[in-house]
Design goal:
By secondary structure, this protein is α/β, with parallel strands linked by helices. The protein contains nine helices and nine strands. It comes from Rhizobium puerariae.
């Protein structure tokens, strides 16, 4: 059984985490499969949707630490542990069209980061979010890197240092996710959000995504120029 299910429905690339008996904890093979699908998605793709089978969205990362008694340099550890996850987060950030996540159950560690990296994360009201790494004396800098520009410093420090389990409604207030719905309303809300985006053209969706990605790092003058440029390019496609 594949741990990640990839399918294309009309103009939507659907990615389903399919390791429910392990809480959909992300493995290197899963990350590689998702990366390959994103890098080869058809140019007419309008939306990327990530969801999960089973009760939990993603409870973290499958064990990646060397076995007790192993010898490894910092370089070895970076190649084996840090870079693969950081590269995966970068791929998610660089999705050129809207990235939607459907979250239920637990979203911890990597799962919390994926939800935060989505452009619109829709979560059930019973979903929870946590950065639990410090419970195991692990410095969660990889998750910190994913969340640093998503929520405030105070909220980020609270999640990392206290390891609190944050309910979905509070996660929405913190800016970690975008929408909360009753447990039985997730599929309908995802269908609504995705359906809205399917009505738009690829140039418009890519233009908006580019602005959302680039504008936080630019000055007012640069944002003004970027806004004009993207608007003109996206609109010009309608007159070709």
């Amino acid at each position: 059984m594949s741990e990640v299910l990839i399918s294309t429905r009309e103009n939507v690339l659907e990615i389903t985490l399919n390791r429910p008996d392990k809480g959909n904890a992300l493995t290197p093979d899963m990350a590689q499969a998702i990366t390959a699908a994103l890098k080869s998605m058809p140019p007419e793709t309008r939306v990327v949707l990530m969801k999960a089978n089973g009760p939990d969205f993603c409870t973290g990362r499958a064990a990646a630490m060397p076995a007790p008694g192993s010898r490894a340099t910092a370089f070895d550890l970076r190649n084996a542990i840090s870079d693969p996850v950081l590269d995966f987060y970068e791929v998610l950030r660089e999705i050129p069209v809207p990235f939607i996540a459907a979250v239920s159950g637990k979203a911890a560690g990597v799962g919390c980061a994926i939800a935060a990296l989505a452009d619109v994360a829709v979560a059930t009201e019973t979903a929870t979010f946590q950065v639990p790494e410090m419970n195991h004396d692990i410095a969660p800098t990889l998750v910190l890197n994913a969340l640093a520009d998503r929520i405030s410093r105070a909220a980020l420090a609270r999640m990392v240092l206290t390891r609190d389990v944050v309910p979905a409604v509070e996660a929405r207030m913190l800016g970690l996710i975008g929408i909360t719905v009753p447990a039985d309303g997730l599929d309908a809300e995802i269908a609504r959000v995705v359906g809205q985006l399917e009505k738009n053209s690829v140039p418009t969706l890519r233009g908006i995504k580019a602005f959302l990605s680039m504008s936080p790092e630019t000055s007012f003058a640069s944002r003004k120029e970027l806004a004009a440029l993207i608007n003109c390019v996206a609109t010009a496609e309608k007159f070709r």
